[in-house]
Amino acid sequence: MIYLLIMCESCKIYIKLCNTIVYFNLYICIKKYRDKFYGEYDFKIIQKMKIIIPVKKAQEIARHQTLKFSEKTIAKTEAANNGLTDLADVIIFISHLIKETFSRKFEVREFFQQCFKIGYKSLPLISVTGTIMGLVLTIQSRPVLVRFGAETMLPSMVAISLIREMGPVITALICAGKVASGMGAELGSMKVTEQIEAMEVSSTHPMRFLVVTRVLAATLMIPLLILYADALGIIGSWIGANIKGDVSFVLFFTQAFSHVGFIDFLPAIVKSFFFGAVIGLVGCYKGFNAGRGTESVGKAANSAVVLASLLVLIVDMIAVQITDMLAL
Questions:
Q1: Which of 60, 159, 167, 280 has the fewest CB atoms within 10 Å, counting from its CB?
Q2: Phi and psi torsions of 104, nearest 5°
Q3: DSSP characters for 101-157?
Q4: CA-to-CA distance for 134 and 5, rounded, in angstroms?
Q5: pLDDT in tens, 58-107
Q6: How many Cβ atoms sit within 10 Å of the Cβ of residue 293?
Q7: Within the chain, how many helices (H) and strands (E) appear?
Q8: pTM for the structure as a whole
Q9: CA gyration radius for the chain?
């Protein structure tokens, strides 16, 4: 009996051992087949990826270039639209200015107040500028004229230079820095603090009260400041001539105006009115159309000075070309 039990247990162990061997062999076969199959499949995938990856890179590059080109196109389009919008705003602003200039209700008191601010308040700066212009021009020109024996032409040369070109342009540039920046900052601060909207609500036309008076005052006062600077420039030239010489005041002025005629004053006076109109218009436009933030006040004043100075030089170039064409 014991022998039978031992034989049965031995048979069970043998059967389990056989099953284990069979399962192990089956696992080895399956593993080989899987490695072979998936190895070939991975190789095929790798071969396909070698073809797909460059295509994807090319697609990404093309997409990036397209987006970059689109952004540049959009930026240029926006810049062009902004330029056209600014041009339209300037045209509308000038049309409203002309309309309100010839209206029946003119702010006379505000006009004279602006004339006082632009003219009288600018006299110290223009006085120093005009005197230094004549003094420096005389000191720089005297040695050259002495070398050629034409020292007697110094007064008339300085007078013609100041009256025709240097006096109007330099004085207009000084006024562009003082007057245009003041207008831009003043109107810009009124725009930021909503005073212009309050004037509209209170039935006070801001274009007539703020812009028309300032533009007309600048158009009228800047030519007078230019004539004042020319006179002080000639006085400064007389002072410069007496540094290394002895010329009487009457003799110097007689020689200065001996070669100066009305034809020398006419182009300078005409273009000085345009200088004043440009300075007043630019200062009022930049301040009247300032943004809402506090930074816009500084930007309005800065842009007013830059644009007014540039337009003064452009107007002067056009005036010189017209004067040369008309042989004036």
A1: 60
A2: -70, -40
A3: HTSS---HHHHHHHHHHHHGGGHHHHHHHHHHHHHHHHHHHHHHHHHTT-GGGHHHH
A4: 138
A5: 556 656 655 555 555 655 555 555 667 777 888 888 888 888 888 777 88
A6: 10
A7: 12, 0
A8: 0.73
A9: 43
